[in-house]
Design brief:
- This protein is of the alpha/beta class.
- About 25% of the residues lie in helices and about 35% in strands.
Length: about 190
């Protein structure tokens, strides 16, 4: 089982917001940068599947040089490899981000691609779905549980409204957007 986990670096909620002299932008050196919380749940779910299937977990991040830290953190937790896509441009659209990531990972032939449901900064909630479309794979969102059935399919628990859940079976390869709270992320 070969699993890719998309991880984004974001500012922590307790970061100091200090303006540059132009009063239009933030001083980046004053920000406390961390792994996006929903992506930490996606990584933990991938690591748990890796342990059950003797698979491989590859993390992928898209962003500035400082984003390499989230790869290092994921490797310390048990990921096997990292893919870094340098992007210094701010305010990329979800389509631009998904196309860049897809271009970089498509030759890897991943069985599963995990991403957090949304990022804590932009909150697009579209990257996992768009990547599924570009790679022509199955997709499920709001995933609260996973179970590998065999080499060709996975069973996923989807969160619905009012505390209801639904189990669905998907063909592999698949792109899953993981809901926060699915597990308890481990420490490095």
């Amino acid at each position: 089982m070969k699993i890719c986990v998309l991880i984004k670096q974001v500012c922590s909620e307790d970061s100091s917001l200090v303006l540059n002299d132009d009063k239009l932008s933030l001083k980046s050196d004053a920000l406390n940068l961390i792994t996006n919380e929903p992506d930490a749940y996606a990584l933990e779910e991938a690591l748990q599947l890796k342990e059950k299937t003797d698979g491989e977990v590859v993390v992928c991040t898209f962003g500035p040089e400082s984003s390499k830290q989230v790869i290092k953190d994921a490797l310390a937790k048990g990921a096997d490899k990292g893919i870094f896509i340098l992007n210094e441009t701010k305010n990329n659209s979800p389509i631009e981000i998904a196309k860049s990531i897809t271009e970089k990972i498509k030759e890897e032939n991943f069985d599963l691609i995990f991403s957090g449901l949304q990022s804590n900064d932009s909150g697009f909630s579209q990257i996992g779905l768009l990547i599924a479309e570009y790679l022509n794979t199955s997709h499920a969102s709001l995933v609260m549980g996973t179970e590998i059935l065999n080499e060709k399919s996975i069973k996923v628990k989807l969160e619905l409204e009012n505390g209801w859940f639904q189990w669905s079976e998907l063909d592999l390869p698949a792109s899953l957007t993981i809901q926060s709270g699915i597990n308890s992320p481990r420490y490095a």
